[in-house]
Write a structure and sequence with these properties.
By secondary structure, the chain is of the alpha/beta class. The protein has a single domain, classed as Vaccinia Virus protein VP39 (Rossmann fold, 3-Layer(aba) Sandwich), CATH 3.40.50.150. The protein is 34% helix and 24% strand. Helix 4 links the parallel strand 1 and strand 2 (85-90). Helix 6 (141-154) packs parallel to helix 7 (195-205). The N and C termini lie far apart (36 Å).
């Protein structure tokens, strides 16, 4: 779907059941999430990522971070336990409204509504970490590759990118075709970005890949991976 439809779709998802749209494997749907439990899952995720970075010998300055595709701020709030300043970015203002209501870190956390297929709202070389999990896979490959280049641009020299994306359909799975657009549609599409495409975008933008890990974060229908990369100094 094009970017305007993508934004509208996620606004609808945010209005229908925003927490389920973010953590869809939770058994409860229909507004039954406990907020404390929801944000606790973010703390666990960030702790696990921090341990993984340490295990791979990746050091990250703890100044400023971006949570791209932040939704309700599940990971944004957990990042603020570690970083001096964190910005959550999302294309759905309905998501950000909820994130602001649940901000427990005051002015150290800011939420930015970004309606563009780039990050021109931020200047070059501004952040020590940019993280994006289970986000890029919901947009077309050309948008994904463009955002990867933007991620590198806004990192400071030596800054670290931690990003996840779906790569190719799992064996035997055939992606469906998006239904005709509806004003109230709320569908979760997944689009693949083959690993060579991602590597070329990052390396061409000035980043070196530190490590890659195959994961199952995109669900059983897709192969998925995450990687850490560092902007060249």
């Amino acid at each position: 779907m094009d970017f305007s439809r993508l934004k509208k779709n996620w606004e609808n998802l945010a209005r229908n059941d925003p927490l389920w749209a973010i953590v869809a494997d939770h058994p409860e749907t229909g507004h039954h999430w406990d907020f404390a439990e929801f944000f606790t899952t973010g703390v666990g995720a960030i702790n696990g990522i921090a341990d993984e970075l340490v295990a791979h010998g990746v050091e990250v300055a703890l100044g400023s971070a971006i949570d791209f595709g932040c939704g309700y701020g599940r990971l944004t709030q957990a990042l603020a336990d570690r970083f001096a300043e964190v910005i959550g970015v999302d294309c759905a203002e309905s998501m950000l409204k909820g994130a602001r209501q649940h901000n427990r870190h005051g002015d150290r956390v800011r939420y930015v509504h970004n309606e563009c297929p780039d990050l021109q709202v931020f200047p070059d070389a501004s952040f020590d970490l940019l993280m994006s999990l289970i986000v890029l896979q919901h947009m077309r490959q050309d948008y994904q590759a463009g955002y990867l280049r933007e991620f590198v641009r806004v990192l400071r020299p030596g800054g670290v990118l931690y990003v996840q994306f779906a790569t190719v359909p799992a064996k035997g799975y055939q992606p469906g075709v998006a239904p005709p657009e509806r004003p109230d549609e709320a569908i979760i599409e997944i689009h693949g970005m083959p690993a060579p495409v991602a590597r070329a975008a990052l390396q061409g933008a000035g980043a070196d890949i530190l490590y890659e890990v195959a994961d199952g974060w995109a669900g059983v229908e897709w192969e998925s991976m995450h990687l850490a990369a560092r902007r060249r100094r």
